[in-house]
């Protein structure tokens, strides 16, 4: 095997939001450490892949997407679900929907309490966001938008490396019409989602400017000479000497050594995969593939959480406003609470601490994205229609990532838990009923002509709604939890400690969405009878995160860099 001993202090694996943020902050510290950022994909320099109008093209481009899939899921009629994962510089920020939500301040503060680290507190998180952002307000004055979007002049940072822009559209027509319909059905319009509370009907800023998406690769512009970036460098495993992480092995056999530490920022599928191939994980699983055991941690790859959604298509009224083209910057978002779900037997069956969190004012139970009347087609609809996305948040089901083979080139087996937990089913039912009620409102763009074709559940019965979800749901590609952070490896089912260090070894950390601790702790099988909900004898804490991952991932990278800088005295 070829060896590379150029003398790097830190090696960072994965150039998505977490990896790029960690790399640039480390490299710019006063100690000027030698930092190597390794990315398995290409440099993604084709400008056509950065245009907002080509968003769906980017997501479906092989060179930008690992295109992972789940295993066959029997409870979803044997379907496999696509798991889009960014490939190349920028990672998932190069193929995502670009919505820029900072998350719930209640959830940030809860993570701080769970981990015992003030770095996670909302007040500190907000300041890091402002250091990261370069906000552009592109809405013309006096356009009538302030009822719907008014974050204030100092809400966002204006000098950071990631461009953020206000949503741009015809406020007096499609956006206003759709938002007002939701408001007429009792949902508040929230004009400022920047302050840690995006509950309500809210317009999302976008990570981009002037029609060009901003990815984490933008942070690498004008990087100092001590930061080295290598693309097409696929890391297979980490090598250890006496329990100390010393090097990474690439797919071509090249070995690159790190003098200080290695940081995995490869995401919720590939970070646990690298750990497993490196000998860190459940001993039985590693032994079954002939992988030498470095450290037996049964939690690696477990507690997989995700958001998932489905689409409804509604034929528009003849007199409804119809906007041509892509919906980018012109759709209504909603982070909403289902009060019906929060009064249900399924809610009462949840542990009390989870009930308290779900009732906090900034924590939503479901999300909608409503593309106002636009020229869209669907196999079952001819002509214009409006699209309604319903997404489950704070889901309680959990899955796992395991190895399919001892060959690191083989993708792992991903088994999510979609629509299995009783609480998740209840939220899907009640959120769908609410959305259909809104679409039936007199002011909605939906055609009310009898016999009009709509693609949605056949009725509002529980059976029809769940059947529609099982046949049509897809991942929102918000995977979390497979290398969870915690104060205790055993009690918290953790893979890394509060300093992001991997339990059981030295010199290795993980910093990406895989560490997010607001995921289920244990699978519990609930049985629903027509008359009552029967609980198992033992029910441990279950919870799920309601935030979007893009912004959280940047925070992971910034936090791990801060910890490394402090520990190694790089700013002394």
UniProtKB/TrEMBL annotation:
- Tell me if Nucleus is a UniProt keyword of this record: no
What does this protein need as cofactor?
Answer: FAD
Instruction: Enumerate the InterPro entries for this protein.
Output: FAD/NAD-bd_sf (IPR036188), GMC_OxRdtase (IPR012132), GMC_OxRdtase_N (IPR000172), GMC_OxRtase_C (IPR007867)
Q: Does the keyword Flavoprotein apply?
A: yes
Query: In which domain of life is the source organism classified?
Result: Eukaryota
Molecular functions per Gene Ontology: flavin adenine dinucleotide binding; oxidoreductase activity, acting on CH-OH group of donors
Record-linked Pfam families: GMC_oxred_C (PF05199), GMC_oxred_N (PF00732)
Binding residues annotated for FAD, in chain numbering: 235, 477-478
Supply the alphabetized keyword list.
FAD, Flavoprotein
Residue ranges of domain Glucose-methanol-choline oxidoreductase N-terminal in the record? 267-281
By sequence similarity, the record places it as follows: Belongs to the GMC oxidoreductase family.
Q: What is this protein called?
A: Choline dehydrogenase
């Amino acid at each position: 095997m070829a060896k590379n001993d150029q003398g790097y202090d830190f090696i960072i694996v994965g150039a998505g939001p977490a990896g790029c943020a960690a790399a640039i902050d480390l490299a710019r510290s006063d100690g000027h450490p030698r930092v190597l950022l390794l990315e398995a994909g290409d440099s993604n320099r084709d400008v056509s892949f950065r245009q907002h109008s080509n968003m769906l093209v980017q997501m479906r481009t092989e060179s930008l997407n690992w295109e992972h899939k789940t295993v066959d899921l029997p409870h979803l009629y044997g379907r496999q679900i696509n798991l889009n994962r960014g490939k190349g510089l920028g990672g998932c920020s190069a193929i995502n929907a670009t919505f820029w939500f900072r998350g719930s301040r209640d959830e940030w503060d809860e993570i701080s309490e769970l981990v015992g680290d003030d770095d996670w507190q909302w007040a500190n998180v907000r300041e890091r966001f402002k250091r990261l952002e370069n906000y552009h307000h592109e809405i013309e004055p006096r356009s009538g938008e302030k009822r719907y979007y008014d974050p204030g002049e100092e809400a966002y940072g204006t000098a950071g490396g990631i461009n953020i822009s206000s949503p741009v559209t015809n406020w007096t027509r499609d956006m206003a019409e759709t938002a007002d319909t939701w408001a007429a059905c009792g949902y508040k319009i929230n004009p400022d989602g920047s302050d840690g509370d995006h509950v309500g009907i809210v317009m999302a800023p976008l990570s981009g400017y002037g029609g060009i998406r901003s990815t984490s690769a933008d942070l690498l512009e004008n990087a100092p000479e001590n930061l080295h970036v290598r693309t097409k460098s696929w890391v297979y495993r980490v090598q250890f000497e006496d329990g100390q992480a010393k090097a990474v092995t690439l797919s071509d056999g090249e070995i690159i050594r790190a003098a200080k530490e290695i940081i995995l920022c490869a995401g919720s599928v590939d970070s646990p995969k690298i750990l497993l191939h490196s000998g860190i994980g459940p001993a039985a699983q590693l032994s079954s593939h002939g992988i030498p055991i470095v450290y037996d941690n049964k939690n690696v790859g477990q507690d997989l959480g995700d958001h998932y959604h489905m689409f409804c298509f509604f034929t528009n009224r003849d007199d409804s406003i119809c906007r041509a083209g892509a919906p980018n910057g012109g759709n209504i978002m909603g982070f909403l609470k289902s009060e019906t779900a929060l009064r249900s037997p399924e809610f009462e069956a949840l542990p009390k601490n989870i009930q308290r969190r779900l009732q906090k004012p900034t924590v939503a139970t479901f999300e909608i994205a409503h593309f106002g009347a636009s020229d869209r087609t669907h196999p079952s609809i001819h002509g214009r229609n409006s699209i309604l996305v319903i997404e489950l948040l704070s889901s309680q089901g959990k899955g796992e990532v395991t190895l399919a083979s001892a060959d690191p080139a083989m993708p792992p087996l991903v088994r999510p838990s979609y629509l299995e937990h009783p609480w998740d089913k209840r939220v899907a039912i009640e959120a769908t009923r609410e959305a259909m009620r809104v679409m039936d409102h007199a002011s909605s763009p939906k055609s009310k002509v009898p016999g009009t074709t709509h693609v949605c559940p056949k009725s509002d019965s529980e059976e029809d709604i769940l059947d529609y979800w099982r046949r049509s749901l897809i991942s929102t590609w918000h995977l979390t939890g497979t290398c969870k952070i915690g104060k205790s490896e055993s009690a918290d089912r953790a893979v890394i400690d509060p300093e992001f260090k991997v339990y059981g070894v030295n010199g290795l950390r993980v910093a990406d969405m895989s560490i997010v601790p607001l995921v289920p702790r244990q699978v519990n099988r609930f049985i629903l009878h027509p008359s009552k909900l029967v609980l198992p004898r033992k029910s441990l804490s279950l919870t799920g995160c309601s935030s979007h991952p893009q912004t959280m991932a940047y925070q992971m990278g910034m936090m791990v860099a801060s910890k490394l800088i402090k520990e190694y005295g790089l700013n002394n």
